[in-house]
Amino acid sequence: MSKFYITTPIYYVNDKPHIGHAYTTVLADVLARYHRLMGEEVFFLVGTDEHGAKIEAAAEQAGKSPREFCDENVEAFREAWKSLDISYSNFIRTTDSSHEKAVSNALEYLYKKDFIYKGVYKGLYCRGCEQYKTDDDLVDGKCPDHQTEPEVMEEESYFFRLSQFGGELERSISGGKLKIEPAERKNEVLSFIRNGLQDISISRKKIKWGVPLPFDKKFTTYVWVDAFLNYLTGLGWDGKISPRPPLKKGGERRGLKFWPPDVQLMSKDILRVHATIWPALLLALKIPLPKKLYIHGFFTINGQKMSKSLGNVIWPKQLTEKFGADGTRYLLMSSLADGHDGDISWEKLTAKYNTDLANGLGNLVSRVMNLAKGFEIAVRDGSLKIKSEKVRKLLDEIKPKEALDEIWKEVDWANKYVEETRLWELVKTNKKQAKRVLEELLAGLINIAENLKPFMPETAERVIKILESGEIKKGEILFPRI
Ligand code: MSP
User: Fold this and answer.
1) Which of 135, 248, 313, 382 is deepest in the core (most CB within 10 A)?
2) Is 126 among the catalytic positions?
3) pTM (2 decimals)?
4) Which residues, 6 or more positions from 358, have their beta carbon under 8 angstroms from its beta carbon?
């Protein structure tokens, strides 16, 4: 059986999950469900990033120990993913002791193999990004993402020999061994790498909240190095590198049955590190690279960047309370076109819900089922697979919006067909012809429901049940108008 391994970024646990996190996670879930439906063995990893300066400071501000703070905050993520019907295989926390142990083992190996050396670091550090910044990264001296001036940091530090991997990374990415999609993103990353990579500091002296470096316990591990390894530890990897033989395909022996990731999802904010530090660590550890990084767009709200200070953040809870789990999943997946940013607002979301779900799909199902009363029409949800080849192709290409547009062509066709045939008259005047029209419509509906399984699992099941039982219960409404 072929396997499919998909990951989301592990989100910083100091924030509550917002619509951006929800988007990435729902997209991963849609792809995970799709590949399961196609008969593949799927591993779907989510989690939280819990170490480092940002979390340490947030915990202090909350008057809590970092551990207590993380334990409390992680619940918001679990709840959000539950309310959105996220079918993850594992939820990894970087404070899990097995993860910490594996990070320590891996660092020990990298140090022994001389991929890590000691030096002095001086640079500008943005705490919001947990990243050093170059002058080129700043706008008016400030981090453009956090609107804060980075701090000058100078400290003894351990470095990872990132510079040594530039050539191999360039070849892997340009040759498609490590795919980066969409193509603009790949080109951006390639030109960054071609400008030359520098060694990076992977230790922090002042930060207590992190994994101690195994070879010098005065230091903790740079949070990004710690975080990247989640993609391995989330599968049960213990960080032990056996000297020989190099990892075989599959890598079952080291808890890496599902390795490498088929798709790693993220947005552009964290692409650069994922296309440099992350694969370089893997090369140093002699572990195969992920097959693909897929970079989706960013949401803006009413044309503005989403931020707490602007008070315009949209939370998953607000969405699921208003639109339900499946309604929210639909609205999220249809709001960003392939790789592009998208602007949303409550007005736009509500309008789309009413048009596509309440008046579109919901109305279609109840109308057709009411007209089908008294007719004997056999329908069966025969196949496990997604029926439409076009929808499959679009999901293989990670184009959820385009796939939904495709499915909605059939919804629109069906609604029009009811009108054109004046089906409500036909069922009275010409039973034979009405039956033929109804057969076509029900076949269309079953198609729609099957294609919707990865996107709206509960709705798909409900529609299939309604179709199989041949009737819709009185008053049953799939999507109440808002
Ligand atoms: N902890 C790191 C990731 C470590 S992975 C080894 C991190 N966390 S984060 O909480 O900031 O999450 C960033 C990710 O959240 C983005 O890459 C994207 O997947 C999602 N989004 C955050 N804001 C977003 C929007 N406004 N729009 C769309 N997605 C966004 O970075």
Assistant:
1) 313
2) yes
3) 0.94
4) 479, 480, 481, 482
Which pLDDT value is given to residue 386?
Answer: 66
Q: How far apart are the first and last CA of the chain?
A: 44
Does 253 fall in a domain? Answer: no
Protein residues with CB under 6 Å of any ligand 1 atom: 9-12, 15, 20-21, 23-24, 49, 227-228, 230, 266-267, 269-270, 298-299, 306
The stretch 177-191 carries a mean pLDDT of 97
Q: Is 101 a catalytic residue?
A: no
For residue 55, give both structure tokens.
């979390």
- Domain of 397, CATH number, reads 1.10.730.10
- 443: domain range? 345-469
Q: Which residues pair with 201 in a beta bridge?
A: 159
Q: What is the pLDDT of residues 87-138, one digit of tens each?
A: 999 999 999 999 999 999 999 999 999 999 999 988 898 888 888 888 888 9
- For residue 176 the two structure tokens come to 């498609």
Among candidate residues 16, 305, 401, 435, the one labeled active-site is 305
Q: What is the pLDDT of residues 250-294, one digit of tens each?
A: 455 567 999 999 999 999 999 999 999 999 999 999 999 999 999
In a mutational test of the pocket of ligand 1, which residue from 6, 10, 11, 343 has the highest number of ligand atoms less than 8 Å from its CB?
11
Q: Does the annotation count 143 as an active-site position?
A: yes
Q: Would you place residue 153 in the very low, low, confident or very high pLDDT band (cuts 50, 70, 90)?
A: confident
The total number of structural domains that make up the chain: 1
What separation in Å is there between the alpha carbon of 360 and the centre of ligand 1?
32
Alpha carbons 164 and 118: distance in angstroms, whole number: 16
Q: Rounded to 5 degrees, what angle do the CA atoms 228, 266, 257 make?
A: 50
